[in-house]
Amino acid sequence: MGKSLGPVGAPALPNAVPPPAGIGRRSFVGYVMGGTGLVVAADLALGAAPARAAGLPIPSVPQIPELYDLNDFLTHCALPTSALIAIHIDEQGDAHFALPRMEVGQGITTSTAMIIADELDLPLERVHVTLAPARRELLFNQLTGGSNTTISTYTPIRVAAAVARKALLDAAAIQLGALVETLTVKGGVIFDLLGNALPYGEAAALAAPETTRQVEVELKAEAAHTIVGTPRRRVDALDAVTGRKRFAMDLTERDVPGALPTMVCRAPDLNGTAKEVRNQAAVAAMPGVTHVAIIPTGVAVRARTFGQCIDAVRALDVVWNAGTVAGRSSADILKELRRAELPLAVPKLGATTVEGEFVFHFRSGSALEPNCAVADVRADSATIWGGLKSPIDAQSKVARALRLPQGKVTVNVVQGGGSFGRKLFSDAAIEAAHASKAFGAPVKLMWHRADEPRQGRVHPMATSRIRATVLLGSVISFEQRHTSVSTDFTHGLGERLTAEVAALPTGLANLGFSETIFLLSQELPYDFGVVTQLLNESNLDVDRFNTSSVRNIYSPDVRCANELIVDRLAAKLRLDPVAFRLRYAKSGIVKRVLRRAAELGEWGRAMPAGTAQGIAIHKEYKGATAVLVEIDCRPETVNRKVRDAVTGPRVTKATVVVDCGLAINPLGIQAQMMGGFSDGMAQALSYGNHLVDGRFLEASWDNSAYTRQWNTPFEFRCEVLDSDRKEPGGIGEAGVAASMAAVACAYARATGTMPTEFPINFHDPLHFEPKPFVPPVPESPVNGLDHVS
Q1: Measured between alpha carbons, how far is residue 702 from residues 646, 774, 781 in Å?
Q2: Do 422 and 535 have their domain in common?
């Protein structure tokens, strides 16, 4: 059936519960290059004897994503320059490829290497995938986002590898005096019928032409794959666990001579700016400090160590200008959103109406790796190193900040320790460039962990209103109005043209990007008659809040609201939630993942009072995901005590089933789904930012109640279904939306009350004492070994 990941040492789950009743062309043209080389109270309990609804599903008009979705758009944007990539075979016969996307832990360097190795008949360890620097010629083709990397690069990379293989075989045929059709390849060595061998390295030396010529190649048939589709450990796993993997902060003075630690003292208000430093000379004279200067985002300090930078930041006496939301709170922003909500078209019709109003609070988009960049700015040029998912846009913004031609700025992409959409923005690189220019010296700039939730990128606050109408046992309409603080899309499609357009005054152009992405990504996968899903964003917020397309963009909030109402519709029609979904689902792959999740997760099994199962589905990224969870909301669980922990309801079991098309690396997909589940669960239960008096209270990970070990399920299982589709889908964000929704649905069934604000614990007393805003960062920790066993 597929590949599954169960708890270590646990037997496979029994298939004890059957699903409820009722429920080419391969020819391409490539080139051989010349040269070298996504408030109502209700009783959601199921009736003792669910009755089949009398009505039938009313077909809905196809929504735009069913015909043309965000990944189609991103892929088509990348298509014109997709041939501007090359695979180089060195003299040892190893393959080298500079991937024009960013590795942030999603495993694309591994999956890309697998694709190349399979097409070239090379051992995986002999394929070396690095990250390409900013290349302006890769117009619309160097943006890492939307779970689009493998979708858009799969065929171009295969073609490049096939072109290389053909060139090697052609050269070998001449050298060995044989027909190409008679040659075979094993482990990077070409053999003729007589057993004569020619290693790839030697063939490569013979294959490089003097001019570029067009060639036609045929890609391998799926049946010939020996690497693609097999579970593989990440190629960088050993380096990651042994500390040898290098991130931007691992660059040393040997890499960038003179690049000393640099940090920024930031305003207490969100987006406040420095007006004056009262004690600049005194701070500049502190031990280890070499430079102090005002830059657009605060006061930068450079020192011999980061500890000395922290000491200097804490010592600074700065006069600050007010921030962009001075005096405002989460309640104020919610009132603004309520005023901006678009009206629902279908009137409320008493007992025939099912509706809900939901609030989704700000939540930090912080990655585990602190925001950082290295910059070396000279009089007429600049070089940047950083984890950048839109490096061409970073190059243009740094050039503008330094008043240099874009061609005079070199941007090197370094692997990142997570992103969640955060690294679509180049603020660390721009800050580093400003600081390096002000100091006249190279810098290794790092944000403090207290900076990120307070001044970094956040998922925008939003409301979602839904009204569905049931008539004669059928759902005849479903309306959703999603209203959000503006999502910042001023990175455009990763290059200067669309970024400049998105950043035009008034925010209307940015709103155009938001509407486009919402339209191309949001899909209600049910036949509910007349379906409308509309977005409204305030065009005032792009400059007020630092937002970003946090992992899965709009989908977690939209899907969570959808699936809670779907459960209420099922209860109204006295149908089991799984049976209802299967009855109304449009898509075959949605039904397939749902059936399998219900089977694997033992849907409908008896559960103690205060506990429940929840299930949800999501369709996006050329695939579908179903998540079934079990939650424990009993007082003894909710009120359990763990040192320094945020506890609350406990998800005890999670079952995830995904159909993502061709699975390049099933093991990598399972890891991504586990991470996506952790995201979705946190967003449902505990992870949010509190805006008070123009400032976010959270500072650092100890304040941000993201999923921790004491929150994770005792049992997690992910199954990647074998798909009948021959192209890969996206997977980096695919697990978030259904996971958040499933947890919310389980909570509603366990407590008998549908949650309407997220995270669910948002109005609980703070689990932390807010850190001071002046100074903006705490002292360096000195008790790091206190709790080591």
Answers
A1: 10, 19, 13
A2: no
